[in-house]
């Protein structure tokens, strides 16, 4: 995957890059290396003491190693110093800034004007970036920070595309950064005190308790002063509707949903600008930022991969660029449902999840390649594997994943054969190259490096499947192609499935366990390669290029022909 032109951090003048950079998060050293491998142009990270991620797993040694690793691969690293300082924090600043000068990052992300002033005076060689926590939402504010010496400004998440385009036009000489993907705080740019109030944990000092995503119940206060929980049942449910009314908008009632599980009034879906990414690229947003320093290596890898391909493809052929293929990839990453948020200016109800807050997808992290031997991959198992599972090796160097169906798993340490592998004991399995029907060993060694992510379909409950359908329709409505009636019907189905609380799980493809076959020609699938039913499908696959499977439509057509 091609990377964009690097910015020379030794130069003091701001130089805008020729292409937008992909900026990925790194909560630890492993995630930093994963981001580099899967196509990030730059990585941002912090240490627990002075950034807005007190749960950061980065030690000073990790920061040093991470920056050296990134620079060796031609990537940039930005450190975060974006807390809002209290008096107790000021004494720490001199030592912290001196440490930052030694590790030589490509930029320092700052929110507090006092901290900005201190760093500028004590370390003028450091490139200063203004954090989204500074709530920069206008070209006038960008001009202000540019005059103070900032080289890059991260725009607030509440800035619309129209506003962003105007900022770009009026501020052509400073780098602009915008969030394109990830979880969203309900205060958007993060200036929140809800966590302080509910849990005595300061969100602006990096200890957010995510109080906005908690479950809340409705209570009644009787006139005698007693307080009772309002318990809803089939008998009284239809007697109540629940609304919020803001005092400056009398009569504008915003309905909230309350049931026995609670209410979710502050739960934003996850930001995903991919369908409108061409807008950002066309006006020259210099840095496209992905949220998620606390997310998994799986998230970092697959989100970076999707945006890397999308960005490169846009620059290659912007007239024929289409986001759908990349959206399919992002659908394999756990999420709360995707939203364009403030892209069009107004935030709609479709940007919120009123039903529940869990994060999941129909795919999950199966494992990661920890070693590439002459004849096999050694894989660290991350989730339960069962005989018959189809595993996809998602290479950072290939457009299409490499699927393989495994009927048994060889313990890499003792050679023992198992049909089920649980992740709790940090097991490793050996996957021999001889099991691959399409790819030769040399191709596998070259294109599936250490740290390659493996994924597999996840078995979901009926309620989870309905949630995904509901999320998809909400996203379609934001894009102007959905159906309001269908959205409401899917909402009813989702509520019914949640009320039924069924625990039986199923996958999307008919290939859980050793039964069933998708008919596309996965490596190692005995049903496809030996059953007469798939004879014509095998013949069609033989004409395809190496490593390319049949499409679902092709597979279905060939099987139907054979059966008929």
What does this structure look like?
This protein has 564 residues and is an alpha/beta fold. It contains 17 helices and 26 strands. Strand 5, helix 6 and strand 6 form a beta-alpha-beta unit. It starts with 20 loop residues before the first strand and ends with a helix.
Shape designation? globular
Work out the strand percent: 15-25%
Helix % is 25-40%
State Rg: 25 Å
Q: How far from one another are the termini?
A: 44 Å
Strand order of the largest sheet: 1-2-3-4-5-6-7-15
Mean pLDDT reading: 84
The number of distinct helices, counting runs of at least 4 residues, comes to: 17
For the sheet with most strands, the description reads:
8 strands, parallel, barrel
Low-confidence stretches: 1-14, 258-263
Number of DSSP-assigned strands: 26
Element layout with pairings:
Elements: E1 21-25, H1 29-37, E2 42-45, H2 60-72, E3 76-81, H3 87-90, H4 93-103, E4 107-110, H5 113-122, E5 128-130, H6 139-148, E6 152-154, H7 161-170, E7 175-182, H8 194-199, E8 219-221, E9 227-229, E10 242-245, E11 253-256, E12 258-259, E13 262-263, E14 270-272, H9 277-283, E15 287-290, H10 297-316, H11 324-330, E16 338-339, E17 363-372, E18 376-381, E19 385-386, E20 390-394, E21 402-405, E22 409-411, E23 417-418, E24 420-421, E25 428-432, H12 441-447, E26 453-457, H13 462-478, H14 484-500, H15 526-530, H16 535-542, H17 552-563
Parallel strand pairs: 1-2, 1-15, 2-3, 3-4, 4-5, 5-6, 6-7, 7-15, 14-16
Antiparallel strand pairs: 7-14, 8-9, 10-11, 12-13, 17-18, 17-26, 18-25, 19-24, 20-21, 20-26, 22-23, 22-25
Helix pairs in contact: 1-2, 1-10, 4-5, 10-11, 13-14
